[in-house]
Amino acid sequence: MVARETTTATSRPQRRRVTLTHPDRLYWPEEGITKEGLADYHAAVWPRIAPFIVGRPLALLRCPTGITGPAFFQKHAWKGMSRHIVPVHDPRDKQGAPLIAIEDLDGLIGLVQSAALEIHPWGATAADWDHPDMITMDLDPGEGVDWAAVIEAAQEVRRRLEDAGLAAFVKTSGGKGLHVVAPLKPRAGWAAVRRFARAVAEGMAADSPDRYVSTIAKAKRRGRILIDWLRNQRGATAVAAYSPRARPGAAVSMPLAWEELGPEIGPAHFTVANAPTRLAATGDPWQDFRSAEVPLRA
Fold first, then answer.
1. Nearest to 296 by CA among 185, 159, 213, 131
2. Can you give the residue ranges of the DNA ligase D polymerase domain (predicted)?
3. In degrees rounded to 5, what are phi and psi of residue 32?
4. Pairing assessment for the beta strands 33-34 and 26-28 based on DSSP bridges
5. In 3D, which of 238, 264, 236, 266 has the Cα closest to residue 251?
6. Pairing of the two strands 85-88 and 72-74
7. Sign of the CA dihedral 63, 181, 265, 46?
8. How far apart are CA 154 and CA 91, in angstroms?
9. What is the DSSP letter of 97?
10. Interval 243-280: pLDDT, tens
């Protein structure tokens, strides 16, 4: 059984030990980022990303020839995968194919070797599959929505989470929007967490129907922000903090301090190229993430 990760931002950096084949393969051609470059990025951010990906079932977006070629999601173990990638068995699906997890930096570099450009973990660990330890609210702007409106939506989600007694943290998605994440003590089950997240989203949509929607239907999303609560159910995933995105620009999903939210930092502002510099120059805005976890109240 994979244990819950306790790595902190002050952990001693680990050295890469996994050998890469074809290290010069371009994963982001326009940016000149190679497989070796992605491995270097992950080694640099390892102490920060580890708590969000180690010991969790993972879904990967794999792009064997980089972002300009074929891409596919992988959530099950596969023949020939790195020995540093760990098969884990869902206790509810004992006869099914094993899912995948990692335990250390070697596992993460094994994902790089497997052309995993995006990492999407469950909101629960493989030590406790049925009790999530975070809530993720994904704010996805429709066509015609400006960035200032997305920031306002994040602040509204923050207020609602805090009114419910939860702490709220924010990060860029690396795409178009923001994620607001609340750490939980893993006591409530998936059904309770799902109901809570849905109530937050539907409450915002009911109070401001001209600004927000809580349904996926694209026809209703033009000029509005989708408050996507569906990440909060068993088997669902959301892109990890510090994970790159397999899109032009090589943006990463970057944790922010609330006071950093503003027009100067857009949704794709931080990239594989500039994120390590930011992390070396600033403190960790999510350093209190785990210490802020509380049980979800009924």
1. 185
2. 34-286
3. 70, 25
4. antiparallel
5. 266
6. unpaired
7. negative
8. 35
9. P
10. 999 999 999 999 999 999 999 999 999 999 999 999 98
Interstrand relation of 212-213 and 116-121 (parallel, antiparallel or unpaired)? unpaired
**Percent of the chain as helix, strand, coil, to the nearest 5:** 25, 20, 50
Which 3 state secondary structure label does DSSP give 267? Answer: coil
DSSP 8-state secondary structure symbol assigned to residue 287:
T
Instruction: Say what the pLDDT of residue 17 is.
Output: 83
Alpha carbons 82 and 106: distance in angstroms, whole number: 9
Residue pair 134/97 in contact (Cβ under 8 Å)? The answer is no
**How many residues are recorded in the chain?**
298
In angstroms, the Cα distances linking 278 to 9, 126, 164, 285, 288 are 14, 31, 32, 11, 18
Q: Which two tokens stand for residue 158?
A: 């923050």
- What amino acid occupies position 143? E
**Residues 244, 116: contact at Cβ < 8 Å?**
no
How many helices (H) does the chain have, and how many strands (E)?
5, 13
Is residue 118 within 8 A of residue 245, CB to CB? The reply is yes
> Alpha-carbon distance 165 to 175, whole Å?
29
DSSP E strands in the chain: the ranges are 26-28, 33-34, 58-62, 72-74, 85-88, 99-102, 116-121, 134-141, 169-172, 178-183, 212-213, 225-228, 255-256
What SS3 state is found at 53? helix
What pTM was computed for the model? Answer: 0.93
- Which among 289, 295, 226, 225 is positioned nearest to 257, based on CA atoms? 289
| Residue type (1 letter), 14 | Q
Q: Using an 8 Å Cβ cutoff, are 276 and 174 in contact?
A: no
- pLDDT category at 1 given cuts 50, 70, 90 is very low
CA–CA dist 56, 274 (Å, integer): 27
C-beta atoms surrounding 222 within 10 Å:
11
Tell me which residue has tokens 């760990």.
86
30 token code pair: 């326009």
